[in-house]
Amino acid sequence: MALSTLDLTPREHDDFVRDHPHGHLMQTTPWGREKELTGWTWRTVAVGRTGADGEREVTGAALILFRRTPVLPLALAYCPRGFVVDWSDDESVDALLAEVTRVARDNRGVLLRVDPAVRIDDPAIRPALESRGFTRTDPGDDAAKTLAQPALRMVTDISDLDALHKDLSQGTRQSIRKAEKSGLVYESVGRDKIPAFHELMRTTGARDGFGIRSLEYFTTLYDVLSPTDDIVVSLVRLDHGAAAEAARAKVEESRQQLEKALAKREKYPSEKADRQVEQLEQGIAKNEASAAEFEASHARHPDGQYLAGSIFATCGTRGSYLYAASSDEHRNLRPNYLMVWRIMQDAAARGVTSFDFGGIDASEGLEEFKRQWNPERREYAGEFTRELRPLAGRLVDLVVRVYKRR
């Protein structure tokens, strides 16, 4: 049965993308609606077969974003993490490419850019693209400025959390336990708490030297993804009263240990015994100071204080850690460790099996945090471009490259 173009509803399109092994959040219609806020327009296309009984079988789909040039009536056509198709199925790839090309040209597209969510070691992907006139983008010395999406990712398998927890380093497990016992409260929140998350983003951007999205951007992201429960906004709050109680409990525990250590040192004097006593005394003093600090803060912040926040989105069984932020205060309590672990637990309970931490970053601190969760270093095929109108396409490509360097 020959393939033809299909007119899918947004729900039908999104269901196909979520269920497909090469599907990605950025190929769903909510992502298209979100990108409208930053100046893009979008269309969806699909191909497949229709049986005699009217039953349709979708074999390929794509969401296309269009970015107009500032002066000329031309556009870049971009399929982020697309196409969603079996790249070894030549008939479906050809039919989908033909329809995407037609729609792109109708929308004044002169360049077609794709970066499929397909691993680089997939034997079908690169021949399928290059044989159809696509050229792979050279990432150069700074892939972050050259590529629209990073090809190198850090992805953790969360299909078996018990096994993952056992495989985590001792330091990571200790950080999770410390966060759980330090008066921190994890919250999965709604739209009304996005301003609190945005304030944490502002703090993080100022500390780490990067620009942040507007509050409207994040509220729109929530609005387009929340109807299908594909977004989780998380905050970690410090309950100063509970933190003070936890510090007092540590003081009491250390005093009991100190009493035993003093008795042991009296019976068996040694430098090791002296060091143990000194460490316990220092720990008691530190926790007493912390308890006093938390008690004073509780008077100023009776409802607590937000220390970390994130936005996590899902597409079928795949989850993506889109944004993360933290306060400058109380970072020693490890709020981000509690946040990630709770997100993983809740996501796994919903059938999510992978946690994408995003691209391998130039920031050593951020990359080191990601590595704490035993991620797999996953490389996608990369970014490919096909010229739809060669002369105009080169001009648009130049404009896009200049824009990325700004």
UniProtKB/TrEMBL annotation:
Pfam families: FemAB. Residues 241-290 form a coiled coil. InterPro entries: Acyl_CoA_acyltransferase (IPR016181), FEMABX (IPR003447), PG_Glycine_Bridge_Synth (IPR050644). Keywords: Acyltransferase, Cell shape, Cell wall biogenesis/degradation, Coiled coil, Peptidoglycan synthesis, Transferase. GO terms for molecular function: aminoacyltransferase activity. GO terms for biological process: cell wall organization; peptidoglycan biosynthetic process; regulation of cell shape. Gene3D superfamilies: 1.20.58.90, 3.40.630.30. The keyword Lipid biosynthesis does not apply. Belongs to the FemABX family. This is Methicillin resistance protein. It comes from Knoellia aerolata DSM 18566. The lineage of its organism: Bacteria, Bacillati, Actinomycetota, Actinomycetes, Micrococcales.
